[in-house]
C-alpha cells in the first residue's frame, strides 16, 4: 500500500481511489499547476485532502459558499483532521484568532472565502503560514464567460507571486472549452495541464417531452415512476403549488426554495434525504451539498437558463450508477419564457445604478466612505423599503458584483457565539443577582470548550432545556453578561452578507461597463440559445448534444434518450443508409473492430449495426477470423 492509499483508508476508510483522484494528487505533488474536471459527486475533495495529509504544511482552499465550507470543515474535524474557516460572517477578533491558528496551530486545511483574499491582513498573515497547496474549488467562478462568475475570484492570481513555488489546483464540475482555457489563464498556470474525466453518464436517460398539459403529464409521470426524485421548477410559488397538487393526488411530496427559513429548509431536505418524503419540488436553490445516491429521476418543469445549470441539476439523478431519468417537460410558452429571461436578468443600467444608490442610503454610507464594510443583507426588507421587486434587486446585485462595487455572500446559518473576556477569577468575583443564574452559568460553561480563549458556539434552546429556564430568560442572562462586559455575545443569524468592495461611489460616477453588461448579455443569450436547442432538437442524441457543449465531441450516442429511441424505432431510410455506408467505409480504410467503427461513425448504434448487417449480406463487408471487419471494394 503506498502512502496516498494508506491515508485514504486510514482517515476515510475507503478502499480505492475513484477515477482521476490519484492522478490529480500526483500531478500537484509533482509541482504542476493542475485543472481537475470531475462531475459533481466525483470526489473532488479527496484529491487535495489526501495530498495535504501526505506532507507538512497547510492547504488553503478557496471556495465561494460559506455553508459548504462549514460542512467540509466539520467533516474533516470528525476525522480528527485540523481544519478551519475564515469568511465574512466572522468578527474581526475571530478572523484574527483564525489567522493565528492557521499560522501556528498545526492546521492542515484553511477554507477561505474569496472576498477575504483582497485584504491586506490576509496578505500579511499569509507570510507566516507554511502553505503546501492552493486549491480553487468551483474554479469556473473565475471566468467572466462562465455562468457563475464571481469577481473576487480574480484576486486569487495575486496570491501567486506571494507563494511563487507553489502549484495551484483548480477544480470544477462544469466548464466549456472556453472556460477551461480561461481558468488556466486567470490563474497564471505555468503550463497548461487539464486532467479530465468523461462527463458521459451511461445510466442516465435524458428525455424531452413537449406537452401543453404539463401538469397532468407530470402527475402521470411520477405516478408511473419508481423511487425518489426531484422536480425543478422556476418559481417559489410553482414549487409550493405543484407540491400541493401532488399531495392532493396522494403522492408524497414537499417543496423547497430560498425564501424558507433555514430551519425549515434543512428539515425538508433531511426528510427527503432519508426517504420520508419521496419527491421534492424545488427551485434551483436546492442542490448545494446534496449527496443522495439513489435519486431515480430529476424532472425539469420548464428549462433551466443554461446547459451548465441543466447538466448539474439533471446529474443529481443516478449517482449510484443504476438507471435513472432526466426529463425536461416543456410547453410552447417555454421558449418565450427563456427569451424573456434575458431581459429580466439584465435590467436597464439606470435601474442598476438606482439600486446601488438605494443600497448606500439603506446602510447610510456617505459617498467616498464604506470601503470594506460588511453588512447583513435582508433582501425582502431592502426591496420593500424602496418598492423594488425582489427579482429586480437580485439581478441588479449580480451586475453590481460583476462591476466590483459590492460582493454578496451566500446565506448561511451562523450559530450564536460567546467569548468570555474576563478570566476565571474575575468571573468568580462577578455575582449575578439571581440565584438560578448560577445553574445557568455552570451549564453554559459546560456546554463547550474554549470560552476563555475565543468564541465558542452555543445553543440557547439547549441551555433552556438543560436548565429548565425559558429561552427568553437565557437571552436575558446573556445580554446581562454582555452589558457587564463579562462576555462578548453574537446572537445567531441567518442572512447573507453584503460587502462594499469599494467606497460608495457618487451616483454620477457609477459606471456599468460594456464588458460587464453587454458582453455578458451576449454570453447569457448564447446559453439561452443552447438550452433552447437542447429543448427543440429532435435529431441528435441528447447526451451527445450536452457533451458536445462541454467540448466532448467524440462521445457515442447513448441509445436510451428519447431521440435515440425514436431513431431505433424507425427503419434506416435509403438516404441515411447511403450516408452511413459512406462513413462506415471511411472508418474501414483498414480492417477494424466493430467497436471502433461504432466509435468512428457518429450515429445511433442501431442505425450503424443495421447498415453493417445489410452491407455484410451484400458481401461488401466481411468479418475476418479475428473478428475485425474488412471492407471489399466492388
Ligand atoms: P464533489 O466535490 O466532486 O461533488 P465530494 O468530494 O463531495 O464530491 O465527494 C462525493 C462523495 O463521494 C462524498 O460522500 C465522498 O466521501 C465520497 N467519496 C469520494 N472519494 C471516494 C472514494 N475514493 N471512495 C468512496 N467514496 C468516495
Report what the structure shows.
Helix content is 43%, strand content 14%. The chain contains 25 helices and 21 strands. The strands form 5 sheets. Strands 3-4-2-5-6-1-7 form a 7-stranded parallel sheet, sandwiched between helices. Strands 8-13-12-9-11-10 form a 6-stranded parallel sheet, with helices on both faces. A 3-stranded antiparallel sheet has the order 14-19-15. The longest helix has 23 residues, at 514-536. It is globular and about 100 Å long. It starts with a helix and ends with a strand. Residues 14, 16-18, 21, 38, 40-46, 291 line the site of adenosine-5'-diphosphate.
Structural topology:
Elements: H1 3-12, H2 21-29, E1 34-37, H3 44-53, E2 58-62, H4 66-78, E3 83-86, H5 92-104, E4 109-112, H6 120-126, E5 131-136, E6 168-172, H7 177-186, E7 194-196, E8 204-210, H8 214-224, E9 228-232, H9 236-248, E10 253-256, H10 262-273, E11 279-282, E12 295-301, H11 307-314, E13 324-330, H12 334-345, H13 349-362, E14 374-376, H14 379-386, H15 390-402, E15 406-408, E16 417-420, H16 424-429, H17 436-446, E17 456-457, H18 460-467, H19 471-483, E18 487-490, E19 497-500, H20 514-536, H21 542-549, H22 562-569, H23 574-587, H24 594-600, H25 605-617, E20 621-623, E21 629-631
Parallel strand pairs: 1-6, 1-7, 2-4, 2-5, 3-4, 5-6, 8-13, 9-11, 9-12, 10-11, 12-13
Antiparallel strand pairs: 14-19, 15-19, 16-17, 16-18, 20-21
Helix pairs in contact: 2-3, 12-20, 13-15, 18-19, 23-25
Give, in spatial order, the strands making up the sheet with the most strands. 3-4-2-5-6-1-7
Give the name of the CATH architecture of the largest domain: 3-Layer(aba) Sandwich
**What is the fold named in CATH at topology level of the largest domain?**
Rossmann fold
Are there runs of 5+ residues with pLDDT below 50, and where? none
What's the CATH H-level homologous superfamily of the largest domain? P-loop containing nucleotide triphosphate hydrolases
Shape: globular
Query: For the terminal residues, how far apart are their CA atoms?
Result: 58 Å
Top CATH class of the largest domain: Alpha Beta
The amount of beta strand, in percent, is 5-15%
Kindly state the percentage of residues in helix: 40-55%
**Are any ligands bound, and if so which?**
adenosine-5'-diphosphate
Amino acid at each position: 500500500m503506498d502512502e496516498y492509499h494508506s491515508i485514504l483508508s486510514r482517515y476515510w476508510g475507503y478502499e480505492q481511489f475513484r477515477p482521476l483522484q490519484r492522478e490529480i494528487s500526483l500531478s500537484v505533488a509533482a509541482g504542476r499547476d493542475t485543472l481537475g474536471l470531475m462531475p459533481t459527486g466525483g470526489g473532488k475533495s479527496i484529491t487535495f485532502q489526501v495530498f495535504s495529509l501526505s506532507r507538512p504544511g497547510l492547504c488553503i482552499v478557496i471556495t465561494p459558499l460559506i455553508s459548504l465550507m462549514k460542512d467540509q470543515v466539520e467533516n474533516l474535524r470528525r476525522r480528527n483532521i485540523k481544519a478551519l474557516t475564515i469568511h465574512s460572517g466572522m468578527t474581526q477578533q475571530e478572523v484574527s484568532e483564525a489567522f493565528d491558528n492557521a499560522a501556528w496551530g498545526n492546521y492542515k486545511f484553511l477554507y477561505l472565502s474569496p472576498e477575504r483574499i483582497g485584504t491586506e491582513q490576509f496578505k500579511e498573515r499569509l507570510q507566516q503560514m507554511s502553505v503546501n497547496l492552493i486549491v480553487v474549488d468551483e474554479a469556473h467562478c473565475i471566468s467572466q464567460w462562465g455562468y457563475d462568475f464571481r469577481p473576487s475570484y480574480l484576486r486569487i492570481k495575486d496570491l501567486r507571486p506571494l507563494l511563487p513555488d507553489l502549484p495551484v489546483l483548480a477544480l470544477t464540475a462544469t466548464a466549456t472549452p472556453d472556460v477551461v482555457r480561461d481558468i488556466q489563464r486567470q490563474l497564471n498556470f505555468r503550463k497548461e495541464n487539464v486532467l479530465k474525466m468523461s462527463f458521459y453518464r451511461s445510466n442516465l436517460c435524458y428525455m424531452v417531452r413537449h406537452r401543453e398539459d404539463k401538469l397532468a403529464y407530470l402527475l402521470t409521470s411520477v405516478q408511473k415512476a419508481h423511487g425518489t426524485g426531484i422536480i425543478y421548477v422556476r418559481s417559489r410559488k410553482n414549487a409550493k403549488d405543484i407540491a400541493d397538487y401532488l399531495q392532493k393526488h396522494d403522492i408524497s411530496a414537499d417543496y423547497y426554495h430560498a425564501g424558507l427559513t433555514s430551519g425549515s429548509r434543512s428539515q425538508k431536505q433531511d426528510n427527503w434525504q432519508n426517504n420520508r418524503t419521496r419527491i421534492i419540488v424545488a427551485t434551483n436553490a436546492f442542490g448545494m451539498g446534496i449527496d443522495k445516491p439513489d435519486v431515480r429521476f430529476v424532472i425539469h418543469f420548464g428549462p433551466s437558463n443554461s446547459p451548465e445549470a441543466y447538466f448539474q441539476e439533471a446529474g443529481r439523478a443516478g449517482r449510484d450508477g443504476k438507471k435513472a431519468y432526466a426529463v425536461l417537460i416543456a410547453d410552447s410558452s417555454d421558449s418565450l419564457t427563456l427569451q424573456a429571461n434575458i431581459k429580466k436578468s439584465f435590467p436597464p443600467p439606470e435601474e442598476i445604478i438606482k439600486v446601488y444608490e438605494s443600497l448606500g442610503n439603506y446602510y447610510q454610507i456617505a459617498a467616498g466612505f464604506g470601503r470594506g464594510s460588511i453588512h447583513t443583507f435582508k433582501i425582502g426588507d431592502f426591496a420593500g423599503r424602496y418598492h423594488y421587486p425582489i427579482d429586480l434587486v437580485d439581478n441588479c446585485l449580480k451586475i453590481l458584483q460583476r462591476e466590483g462595487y459590492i460582493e454578496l455572500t451566500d446565506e448561511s446559518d451562523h450559530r450564536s457565539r460567546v467569548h468570555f473576556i474576563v478570566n476565571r477569577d474575575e468571573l468568580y468575583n462577578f455575582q449575578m443577582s439571581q440565584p438560578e443564574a448560577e445553574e445557568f452559568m455552570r451549564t453554559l460553561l459546560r456546554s463547550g470548550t474554549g470560552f476563555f480563549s475565543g468564541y465558542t458556539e452555543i445553543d440557547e434552546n439547549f441551555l433552556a432545556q438543560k436548565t429548565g429556564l425559558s429561552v427568553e430568560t437565557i437571552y436575558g442572562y446573556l445580554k446581562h453578561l454582555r452589558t457587564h462586559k463579562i462576555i462578548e455575545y453574537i446572537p445567531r443569524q441567518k442572512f447573507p452578507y453584503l460587502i462594499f468592495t469599494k467606497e460608495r461611489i457618487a451616483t454620477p460616477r457609477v459606471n456599468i461597463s460594456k464588458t460587464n453588461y453587454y458582453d455578458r448579455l451576449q454570453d447569457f443569450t448564447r446559453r439561452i440559445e443552447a438550452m433552447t436547442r437542447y429543448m427543440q432538437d429532435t435529431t441528435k442524441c441528447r447526451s451527445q448534444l450536452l457533451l458536445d457543449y462541454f467540448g466532448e465531441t467524440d462521445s457515442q450516442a447513448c441509445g436510451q434518450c428519447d431521440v435515440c429511441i425514436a431513431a431505433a424505432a424507425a427503419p434506416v431510410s435509403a438516404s441515411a443508409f447511403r450516408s452511413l455506408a459512406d462513413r462506415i467505409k471511411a472508418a474501414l480504410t483498414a480492417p477494424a473492430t466493430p467497436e471502433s467503427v461504432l466509435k468512428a461513425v457518429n450515429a445511433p448504434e442501431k442505425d450503424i449495426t443495421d447498415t453493417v448487417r445489410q452491407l455484410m449480406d451484400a458481401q461488401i463487408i466481411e468479418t475476418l477470423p479475428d473478428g475485425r471487419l474488412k471492407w471489399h471494394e466492388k
